[in-house]
Amino acid sequence: MGNNDSSSAPPPAEAAIIHRPAPTWRLVLYLAWPVLAQQGLNFLVTQSDRYLAGVYQPEVAYQAAQTTANYLQWVIISYTLFVTIGSTALVARFVGAEDRQRAIHVTNQALVLAVVFGVAGSAAALTNLPRLVALLQLHDEAAEFAGAYLWPLFLLLTFQMVESVGIACLIGAGDTRTGLWVLGGVAVINLPLAWGFFHGLGPLPRLGFAGIATGTAVSHMIGCVAVLSILARGRAGLRLDLKQLRPDWELMRRLLRISVPAGLDSMSVVAGQLWFLTIINEVGEAASSAHGIAIGWEALGYLSGGAFGTAAMTLVGQNLGAGRPQQAARAGWVTFGLGLAVMCLMGVVFFVLAPQMFELYCPQPEKRPVVEAGVPVLRLVAFAMPALACTIIFTYALRGAGDTRVPVLFTWIGFLLVRIPLAYVLTQPDLHLWHVSDDPQANRLFGAWLAMFADLWVRGAFFLYRFASGRWKKVDV
Hints:
The chain is mainly alpha-helical. Helices cover 78% and strands 0% of the residues. The chain has one domain (19-474).
């Protein structure tokens, strides 16, 4: 690994993408489509997991447990940002400045941090898991199901951390295709493993509901091995070098100076979402189940935004590293325009096909309240797609510039001053300002989503203003 000579060879085309004489929109699509494809595979896995819980487990408690468990899985994704954002930003800067050796050094130091954060996060989560589930107002059988579901995910967290950080470094180098192949492979492996552990197929033990998450955890472990193998051979001008795994405290501090605010921002979002979830869980299991299914379908929108956001983060970072702030701004705006178009298309799908989307996971007559509660909120969020596009794509673009501190304030304003207070008010059982169903749970869930709708538009406006101001061009990383 330490003797791999790939660093002395000319970097592949995808590692120096900003030097290509191509229109900006082509560069955006070049970077975005692999991430979009990979996100699509992840979406299929999530829907497959939801299908297992919804069709093969008739009790609504299982779907309520899965809703809460999926939110806590989001904690894992956000936790990885404490290392990945700085990794992408610094690698992109050094690649843009044509300083390949420093990009390699960042990659190796980021992998060391991934192991440290992974082990620490796993230990903290496993020792506090029952208390965390109880804090989210999930009780009795649903709480027990959620805890069993989350155990394997937190146990193998370190593997997912290393996998995510390795891919983040490659993205900074302009290589989004490796992430597609690795995470696409993880998704493909995840599907049979989840079904196998759920039903006990072949040599796999029958784990039932917890088997869904076990399949996910094991597939990420395989993905981690794949990423390390790729970096050991060298890819996109980056490589794994055992000699460079020795801690460089100054570089780690620099990396964390970028990543920690981004991680706090994302964890603030998760904390707000979990607080929001406690309000919904108190409404009832039907509301919690409908909320989870609606959020699952909404993923078509925000995962699309994340794919275009990844392209924005890479292009903004590389162009700033090359001393091209105006081109960085242009890349951000072009990426936003393309992502906005795709997300608005998803909004049309939500509005038109909402009933069919819910009936797919709730075919039993006893789950009709879940459908009645879920269809109105999925149609409501269709009108929030422009705001969600601003929030997601400009967040990524600002992270590519290393501007990760001010956005935390936007998150706190959105959740603490808009979503959470409004959710408490609009979910009151004696409030009768709208009527979407004869079921009180459906009306209260709609009130909660009205609060979310308002929050998305407020935060979207803030992120749009921040990027348009251009202050991110002067951020020192």
